[in-house]
Amino acid sequence: MQQILFEFAVGDVERSMLVNSAFPEKIVGNTDLQKYENELNYDFIKAWEFRPIRLEALYHLIKFLGSKKRYGSALAFATLAMRTPTCRDVLFVEEEIWTWRMPDEYAVLSYYNGNPEEAYKTTKMVMDSPVFASIPEKDRERMEKNMEFTCEDIAQMIDHSLLRPELTDEDIAKGCECGLRQWLYGQAISHRSCPTGAHG
């Protein structure tokens, strides 16, 4: 019974979104728009609080907050969602949200909030999972592109060390070339390896 009531609660929110998007003239001015957004947030939270073991309402709240560029709030809810144990409900469960959509959203929000390492780890988890092959192609391509962005950002945090005394000039040159290709933040080499006049 609780599952059915939960579905009605989520359905009310979705119907509200459809009605207002179909008839935008109902929302006039910034004040009315803010009121509508506040009510929508409240409805999503209310649906989630009714059955917090379910992620559907919480996911749609997170997506809505993200669409409004409220990335901090969205990430706070997404972090909570990622800690939610697997639900045993069988009725009206949106399987995609549990298997990849929520982790994907969490990864994107982590990136927007300045944590590319978490974004990389979570996206890789989805891409390495058996479900990845069944994800729509456009989403798979987006995730692969996101991985490129996160790898570039992580690389720019790395300070590459080439200080081992046994390294030859050739080793150091190859190491520097590698660092340049990977867009590393910096490279540390011994002053003995620097050309005359390049010390600093």
| Count of DSSP H/I helices | 8
Architecture of the largest domain, CATH level 2? Answer: Alpha Horseshoe
CATH topology of the largest domain: Serine Threonine Protein Phosphatase 5, Tetratricopeptide repeat
- Give the N-to-C terminal Cα separation: 72 Å
User: Which term fits the overall shape?
Assistant: elongated
- The mean pLDDT is 76
Sheet/helix structural class: mainly alpha
Order of helices and strands: HHHHHHHEHE
Strand portion, in percent?
under 5%
CATH class of the largest domain: Mainly Alpha
Number of domains: 3
Rg measurement, Å: 24 Å
> How would you write the strand order of the largest sheet?
1-2
Number of E-type strands: 2
